[in-house]
Records
---
Amino acid sequence: MNNPQPKEWLAKEYSQNYIADYKAFNFVDGEGVRNSLYVSGCLFACEGCFNKAVQNFRYGTPFTQELEDQIIADLSHDYVQGLTLLGGEPFLNTDVCLQVVNRVRNVFGTTKDIWSWTGYTFEELLLESEDKLELLNQVDILVDGRFELAKRDLKLQFRGSSNQRIIDVKQSLAQQKVVLWAKGHDGEQTFEQIKKADLI
């Protein structure tokens, strides 16, 4: 696993503006029905990464205006709660992510929430480059921190290892300390133990 110094990794030096995937109307990447944009490229190289191919900054296809338009169209449905950014590392793909989230805010204001996963910790992002700080300020909920295989826990909600946190970004910035998402709750049994019968 790599641990960067502040401003050591800059999106302008690494990002190729590639997208690994886009999944509309899913229920796994945050609260409610969401549209998820998976950006390509990550330098953290966490042991046990479940999406290793996406560490390549040229994996997938280039981001297009057509995809941006599709994301906005998909978000326009009343039942869609918001947009999720993940990958890959969104904060090393700030050109694409800022383009999308700025349009989301222009079109929908705060009626759609924005979630993001990142290998950075919240504290690290506060010391980062202006583009990363700009993106952080647009995010509502941040799942932060490297995935640590030794701390992997299948009972955790929306995260893979116990060091990771689900952070209310707006409250954290306002209070100048990490404030965890108020709706967060972990399971009493692992997701692997949930049977089909439980979902009917």
---
Amino acid sequence: MSARLEDAGDRLIIWNGNTDKRGALSPELYACILQACELAKERRVRSIILTSDGPFFCAGGNLNVLISRREMPEEDRRAAIDSLHDVIRAMRGAPVPIVAAVEGGAAGAGLSLAMACDVIVAAEGAKFVASYVKAGLVPDGGLTAHLARAVPRQLTMEMCLLAQPVPAERMHSLGVVSAVTPQGGAMDVARTFADRFAAGPRDAHGAIRRLVASAYEGTEAEQLAIERDEMAHAIGAPEAAEGIAAFLEKRSPKYG
């Protein structure tokens, strides 16, 4: 099985298969991610976890598929790449946080998928590789945008120009990876993040995701206006009533 979606109530878990190809991208994986982002609109869902069935998170594009695309007109190649970009857009627009649980490593568009998540948990020894240049290709899936915002310019260039693998431990020191676990433990820690999201204010989480996304796109004046509107709405919402009451009463909040 190339991919499967597990509905675990307050969280949706996307299991990337294709283990014989180190979790290479597949139409089934795209479909599972898009389905999860759609299901996440239901209020019961508080997070999405993206992980793998095998020992490697995702090796990116299947080179045999890329070879076949060489024979396509360029317009058709653009459409094929847009299929990946539709997935990235859906992830960035999801109403709940997305956690990547990375075992082994993430390469090429697999790194793009990981970087599109809000939290990355990685096992010891996992490598992050922008491997495109090894095949004479360039990054896609929003990778240059996400890397350039997350790490120094020189490291972005080192990763993209030389396909230099970066260990999970270094990505953690840079703040890109939130937690490094023993091998085999990434999913366990990802579940703890999902537990925290499940106990938190769903609407506020969604608003924070929107605010962080817009912070990269507009001016400071535009961001101030967006923050004003989001905060004005949040203050009048039920989550704020419960959160403020719980703080004043020195108890844990209970969000619906």
---
Amino acid sequence: MKNLKKLIILTGPSGVGKGTVIKEILAKDKNIWLSISATTREPREGEKEGENYYFLNQEKFKEMIKQNLFLEWAQFAGNYYGTPLSSVNAKIKQGLSVLLEIEVEGAKQIKEKFPNSLSIFLLPPNKKELERRIRNRGTEKEEAIKKRLSRANYEISASDEFDFALTNNDVDETAKRIIELIQT
């Protein structure tokens, strides 16, 4: 049997294509489960409670922080994001590899707590393409876009702190490469 990694961290700047790559990974490997994060941000069009995120108000989120119910949590672009601990533990006990799509600060927290986890940073082909992707989503106002682009510069500078940094030029190839990393 292959030595599967049980906790996989996938991060990268907003707009790099994490969600698209993850859909491809999940379609190709049924032994990988995507952890569902909690957030205080408003749902985007088409997002569903318990499928894309657990949408919480700030009061509930802060109460969960006090009770240590998150594997990690961070504040980003004015909202809180976190990984509920109970569901991650349950899936690992079932023998699945757990894929965490989280932002850089949360990824660093997990890597500190779980040094054997596999951490992967997705890079855009270039910054111009990253900006194009963020703008083409059409989900945010100019001020939020500027915050995300500014944050992307910081996050990209931290990419060398991860086990692997992959440039997302082709979704299918990027997904295949990540599955290879998980299975080796």
---
Amino acid sequence: MLKTIKDMLEALEINDIQYCHWKSNEHLEPALNGDTDLDMLFLPEQRSIVDKVLNECGLKRFRSTPLMQYNAIEDYIGFDIETNKIWHLHTHYRMTLGEKHLKGYTVNPWGYKLLENRKKYDKRIYTTSYEDELILLLVRNSLKIRWRDYSKKIGKDDLAEIDWLLKKVDLDTISVRVMTYLNQESAKEVMKLITTNLTHKKQFLKLQKKLRQELAIYTGYTREYSWYKRTKREFYWAIGAVIRHGGLNSNKPNRRISPSGGCVITFLGCDGAGKSTTIEYVKKELSKKIDVKTIYLGSGDGSSSFLRKPMKLVAKRVGGKGLGHSVEEEFKKHKDDMSHISLKARLYSLAKVIWADVLANEKKKKLKEITKARNNGMVVLVDRYPQTEIAGYSDGPLISKYLANGKGFLYRKANKELNIYQLAYKNPPDLTIKLMVPTNIAIERKPEMTEQEIENKKEAVMKMNPSKNSVVIDTSVEMNESLGKVMNEIWKII
């Protein structure tokens, strides 16, 4: 069991909060280890104290996007620093069930009955009684069936759960207990299913028909509106799945967001500091439960605009390490007589102006994307960030030297570039994480870099302050340790 889950359960008990884990108890252990979701039922009148206790335990409440919200169900997400795990808690204040993407029935009395009959599992967590859970499982499975499911077999997981419960229930007890939930006709169908060899979903149809009649009082949807809402939600869910699994970088959330709004975390670091590895890990972990967008704001091997892609290919072929430095030295040497400047140097300078202009426009567009995603409630992870502290280096302005001209074409381009870079400071990130390693380790990881290049990059990173919240994390330690520190800092601001 995760320590944070253990602490939460102890806090619930200390505060005399009535609860029970009400479904899928057959695989409760993975849920207690943070590998699957926890589904816990609470008394609606205790919601305020539940919110307070969960907040004190470090959990954060998230809000499902409108088309993914269900009545009386809320989302809490926790972070376990010992294991670097994100885990998910669904709080249920009413018994809401029904078809997938709809859950059209909210049966208020059932929640109180479940809590009355709860039991303590392994002296650690309260769960529903086996009898109550089996009744609910059969009811839930019958209400979930749609016309396209009639010919389908019951899923392996459902069969395993039913078999597990059948081995633990007392049939005499369940025959009495089912009458406290359902009328005689529905209860009779439940008992038939319990004594039947279940293989296909169509075996639940008789119970479904009885339940729809009996539970009609607990839904506010007409059949036509139910179909419309379910279809709309299912389409929305499918689009979200395509975006997530297809690696698409949407600016709109499709699962859940924080009520406090979105946030932007930017990652800076010298070569060899493990920036790419860290961002990839953070995205993978947070994306399990939260809508995350990643964006690259550098000029190197990351994503680039359509216009700059061919320019990058040309630069790799005709450019070379030290070319820019040699051109600058040539201009300094012949600053009093520009007629001696070589054609190669002139072409390079022109190309640099074009490159800087395209790059600045690209950054401006990406900054707008970041703002849109944050305003929509997403967590945005930014690789590198524009800065104005150091011109011509480390994501700083590239043609600022032309500002001294005071007028002319090159001056206007340089001024436009500077204005775009300054935009990054007007709407800064919520957190800047600076990943640093000793120079000798950075060279071991990036042998193509010189010691001086590493030192210059580290100095530039330490000078950059795009946001008020900034932390420096040593990534030369054990990977799990550094990733844990990064995740902990991010969790503070989400």
